[in-house]
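Hey all, sorry for the wall of text incoming. These are the two entities for the joint prediction.
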Amino acid sequence: MYSRGKEKTWKFFVMFCGLLMIALPIAIGVFLAIKGNALFYHYHHTLWEFLFTTTWKLKDDLTGGGQGGAAVFIVGSLIVCGLALLIAVPFSLAAAIFMTEIAPKTGNRILRPAVEIFVGIPSVVYGWIGMTVLVPALQSLFHLKTGRSVLAGGIVLAIMIFPSITTVAADAIRAVPVSARMAAYGLGATRWQVIHQIVMPAAKTSVLTGVILGLARAFGEALAVAMVIGKTPAFPKGIFGQTATMTTVIASRMAELMEGSEAKAGLWTIAFVLYLISLLFIFLIHLIAAKGAKKES
Amino acid sequence: MTEIKNEQTKDLTPSRGLIGRAKAVDRIWTVVFYLVALFFLLLLFAFAGYVIIKGFAGATPEMFRFDRNGIGNYFFNTIYLVFLSLLISVPIGVMGGIYMAEYAKDNAFTKFLRIAIETLSSLPSIVVGLFGYLIFLVATHSQPSLLAGSICVAILSLPLMTTTTEDALRSLPPSYKLGSLGMGATLRQTIQSVLIPACVPRIITGVILAAGRGFGEAAALLYTSGSDTNIKWNPHAWINPSLNPFNPLRRGGTLSLKTWSSFTASVGAEDVANLSAAILMILVLSFSLLAHYLEGRIRKKMGDTK
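and here's what came out:
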């Protein structure tokens, strides 16, 4: 039945839901920014202190006057995520190539669903297995005092981001025109030569997008890392050392701190930095895509 | 035949060593790719198998009970929380998808909207959880609740629902829409009674995927839903609303939070955590297999009609 009122309400609701998608990320950013700003405006810490000093001793009361250097957490996140990428990227690329170039049939029927299942496994399960299996294994394998280490965090994160990178990389490789492959095969190239010199260079930019998506996921992962990395807020001494990351400090400290206190304001600031970093990743992905499009045209 | 071929290769290529090496390298890499693929399949099976077997091996019958000592109530909370979150995210997400596919114009604003959806989908779940904590607990001075947790999970699954709906709408044959509009239906009527019904299978696949992810969510619930639970199944106890299992404003820890809290808890909680992880794993596996199966069926059907 046609009625003008119905059409109008319908359109209003549809527009409203569309706009909500814009409003939500902005609202999240604004609220975190307001809370995080307290560290600088209310408790008079400087941005320099926050980013480049290493003592994180904020007071859990309203008077303030502690030290708020978050460099350890920022560097900790960078190291653990970098290590995860180092481990995950070669495996992801190999799995993606297997799915598309080596055995597309088995790849599509078995490996692809398996990879998709990997994506869905909850992070706490990864963390729990990391804590009960991986950590003791590392401990006995390398004769450590405790297996909780940057390495354990890197391995757990690598397993978690491997599926995301693989899926995007496989799509990217699939998008390379068949004619490019055929031309190379026609010239007598072996399969490896085609993969190495034709397909991968052509898929490079899109694969990079997948790597960044994986990195973004690694940066934001909190609980799985917290379960295997230990709680030492200091720079790690090698890959067997312990450290803390931006997400683990939030996950382990937020609940116990007083609302409005200096220490809690510091954690809100770290949360805002996490938000900014995920914006940065989105920006990077678009930058790469734009560059790739430019090259093609 | 092959002999002639070999002869030709011999004659035409002066550097046979080069070709031999290229072939050897090719073979080595093929083996490497097979090994990596095999390694991951084994890892997945070993991982899933280990979690499930270990969880049930250490379980006692008491653990399955729906009371203070069992994890039955946590199981109920997990399902109920995801159900509540879907009640929020499915309508909003589907409407958002309709907007993107049918109403959004191809301009800078829509581009911005797309980036916003992308941002939302890549936000760390702990950041969304902190936002929920800020809005629903700190700002309103209220206690952790299932509702606050489910809104956070809903925010996390909104981008998935939106993009699923948009893709589903876009993949419909244009004749559906044109036919309906040609009969004199308005765009709203067309969407409501032609396009959306045709998209239902795909949207359901999206809902199942979203549910599967919701079950395992923990970081977003850490500060929003409360990690323990004390519900009672005896209706006489429901005079106190915080004991009523169906009250969305009560606290409610989920299986994932149970697993997480064993990390900080004292010794002895290990068996419970193992079982929680195993049940989570089964939930997630069955939901993603179901989604995969449905997707395969949809693809097959689409192939048939074409």
